Amino acid sequence: MVQSTPATLSAPRLATLVEGFDRSPAYVGLADALRELIGDGRIAYGTRLPSERDLTEALGVSRTTVTRAYARLRDSAYAEARQGSGTFTRLPGGRTRALDRALWPSDVGSGVIDLVCAAATAPPGVGGLYAEAAAELPAHLGGHGYFPAGMPALQTAIAATYDARGLPTDPDQVIVTPGALAATAVIGTALAGPRDRVLIESPTYPNAVQALRSGGGRLATIALDPSGWDLEAIGAAVARHRPRLVHVMPDFHNPTGLVMSEADRSAYARLLAEHDATAVVDEAHHLLRLDGDPAAEARRPFASYSADAICVGSASKSVWGGLRLGWIRAPHVLVDRLTRARVGLDLGAPVLEQLVLARLLAGPVDDVLATQRARLREQRDALVGALRERLPDWSFTVPAGGMALWCHLPVPGATALSTEAERHGVLLAPGPSFAPEGGLDRYVRLPYAAATSELVEAVDRIAAAWAVVNSGRGGSPAPTSGSDPVLVA
Question: What is the DSSP string of 352-418?
Answer without folding.
Answer: HHHHHHHHHHHTTHHHHHHHHHHHHHHHHHHHHHHHHHH-TT-B-PPPSBSSEEEEEPSSS-HHHHH
